[in-house]
Amino acid sequence: MQLDIGNALDSAATPGVSTDALDRLDDAVADAHETIAAGMSNARFGYASLNLPETTSATGIERAVDPIDADAVLTVGIGGSALGAKTITAALGEANHYLLDNVDPEATNRLLDALDFDSTAINVVSKSGTTAETLANFLVVRDAYEAAGVDWTERTVVTTGESGPLADLAAEEELPKLAVPDGVPGRFSALSAVGLVAPAILGYDIEAVLDGGREARDSLTGSIDDCPAYAYGALAVALERRGVHTNAFMPYAEALEPFAEWFAQLWAESLGKDGQGQTPARALGATDQHSQLQLYRAGRHDTMVTLVHPTARDDREIPAVDVEGLAYLGDATLGDLLDAEFEATEASLAAADKPSIRVELDRVDERGIGDLLVSFEAACIMAGELMGVETFTQPAVEWGKNAARGLLGGEETAEAAAVRNKHNYLIE
Ligand SMILES: O=P(O)(O)OC[C@H]1O[C@H](O)[C@H](O)[C@@H](O)[C@@H]1O
């Protein structure tokens, strides 16, 4: 991954974010890098995530899924236990990866009504093994396979922690079970079995995904000047300190649309703490030029736009047509048009003095997605160090999980009691 940060420096929105300011930040980055590197070598909680390209065994995962013969995969998981797999398979252009993360019964019914159970593997993922949405969806899916007379036990792989209700279910049915590695929070676990089982079942080269991750990991150095990942994290913090509280993540590749979703969880859950953080907004180029760009260019000075741009892609000619005013299209390809839109957006933001960062990758393929995932994880960890927050926890999210469990008749929790006592103000 490469960065061009020119448009984020010295903009009217962010006076003070200059090359000098970044130079001053470089010492803090060097110190934070030492903490991160020490955390990696001691496999400390959270920091161990950056070791996954080394510690994950692609052959171990491939061996575990080998007996499963399937053309499609249904992943049952939520948050960090779903978005990694979704991001990787989408980046590789896979259409036969389905996801049950939410528990909207109408959407679930529609998905299960259309699914070919015989050819679809079930990939159940939960680090804790207790998440209500995931467990409920797994029970529903098992039931649907049974109702269709299809043996779900022959097609299911479970990825979870050592113990817990999901581990018990897996043991009871003697299902193949892979581990969520120690020291790795869910949203940082894409390059483990959590994110790689689905692409492995679908026949992708998951070793190449890990290779891309290794490249990103090996490029972590203690200076902004030669480490794009850290430069991104440091710059986002410098901007956040000056009131840039929204980070609009806008890839110019459909295949990276779920990457923006993955980034949103990473950025929000890791950095939204102690009154700090940036709100991640999801956008897609060029589509959202025709929707959100108005706000980013002419709205409040509180947004940075992250423009992600692959430098190579498969392309398609635009057919020439003899109609006045359309000749210019006949000389171009769809890729040329998308690139021109990208350049125009970047220039238009700069002309309005709005900060943007250009992230480039060679191609959206196995290596490219591995590189991007690890680079943004490292960027996030760097940002967390500079902000002084606990990057690897998510207490605010746990609050809601505890409340929902208590409300459904699980063990009584203080959070559920707070929901029961909440003050309503109804207007009917
Ligand atoms: O993997 P699980 O334990 O099922 O957790 C799934 C998700 O649950 C919560 O929402 C956490 O905040 C997320 O970080 C996590 O990824």
Strand content: 5-15%
CATH class assignment of the largest domain: Alpha Beta
> How many separate domains make up the residues?
2
User: Globular, elongated, flat, extended or rod-shaped: what is the shape?
Assistant: globular
**Largest beta-sheet characterization:** 5 strands, mixed
Strands across the major sheet, in which order?
Answer: 1-10-9-7-8
Corresponding CATH architecture of the largest domain: 3-Layer(aba) Sandwich
- The number of E-state strands comes to 10
Whole-angstrom Rg? 23 Å
Low-confidence stretches: none
CATH topology of the largest domain: Rossmann fold
Number of helices: 17
Quickly give the structural class. Answer: alpha/beta
Mean pLDDT: 94
Distance between the termini: 53 Å
Q: CATH H-level name of the largest domain... which superfamily?
A: Glucose-6-phosphate isomerase like protein, domain 1
Q: What compounds sit in this structure?
A: 6-O-phosphono-alpha-D-glucopyranose
Residue share in helix: 40-55%
The ordered string of helix (H) and strand (E) elements is EHHHEHEHEHEHEHHHEHEHEHHEHHH
